[in-house]
Design a protein that fits this description.
Layout (H helix, E strand, L loop, with lengths): L4 E8 L6 H12 L5 E8 L6 H11 L3 E6 L5 H11 L4 E4 L11 H11 L3 E6 L6 H17 L9 E8 H9 L7 H8 L3 E6 L13 H13 L4 H31 L6 H34 L6 E5 L2
Parallel strand pairs: 1-2, 1-4, 2-3, 5-7
Antiparallel strand pairs: 3-8, 4-6, 5-6
Bound molecules: uridine-5'-diphosphate (UDP) and magnesium ion (MG).
Amino acid sequence: MAIKKISLIVPCYNEGATLPELVQQVSKNLDPLDVDWKLILINDGSKDNTGEVIERLATENESVQGILFSRNFGKESAMLAGLKYATGDAAIIMDADLQHPPEILPKLIQTMDETGADQVVARRNRKGDSWLRSTLSRFYYWFSNKMVEDIELVDGSGDFRILSWRAVDTLLALDERSRFSKGLFSWIGYPTVYIEYENRQRVHGESAWSFRSLFNYGLDGVISFNAKPLRVVAGFGAVIFGLSLIYFLWLIINWAFYGVETPGYITTIAAIIAFSGIQLLALGVIGEYVGRIYSEVKQRPHYVVWKEVGF
Ligand code: UDP
Ligand code: MG
């Protein structure tokens, strides 16, 4: 199947300075190809002039369209909006900050054309990332792949990818509130091909991800997918229970052979602390799930659109 028409989905948060260059580079790389393309820029409630820049670009350039959110809803919601507005044979998701190099776009499209895969993922290496950051991410991928069943997260493969219309439709059918795209992409399956590119640093502005938001994102990834963490906590409880039974038996035997032994302040305190800790942990994990059920049940929309330009 030859790809004739594609939509590019770009979530933008405080990217006013980069967008003109992004549009230019995308045109430069896609115009020589025989495809009809639309660039959908989603302003995710930016604090800078991103909204105005998008409106201007959309009026100047036929191929640019803008969706302006009423406030910041997060990148996941922006991507979802883009997928809903996307038309054509395939959709490409990329970042606005030029860290997802537009030079790769032709290769993404070609690879999809040649292999017929439903997802072609541009996977970055970690060159130039700090040691701490890459070690933490490696640990995270190891940990989350242990905690999450039936999907596999691949280090360095993010949202930068091209999806067939079939994959887009399937993604849209997953209507959950706490979206974790990395997992969803893997969950839908379909033939997937990876291509690699050199990691690069941001040109303008700074990453909106603090360590704290990355941590929350990571937690989402592990928890939003299945109930395995609940089982792990239950298993943990069972192990502790087993150990305490053994300890109890040992105390009884000791008592039978050597008589009453009163001192036990340290063991008592240790037991109290250990058990309250485990109970709080288990409660926390359950609470996470209850919170998610609450937000699913409310069925609020994922985002609110304030304005559409160029549609
Ligand atoms: N982004 C967004 N909403 C947010 C935060 C980020 O739409 O609340 C966009 C941002 O404009 C960029 C992409 O998501 O296009 C990736 O963000 P960033 O570059 O900050 O993340 P990193 O590259 O560090 O993963
Ligand atoms: Mg970035």
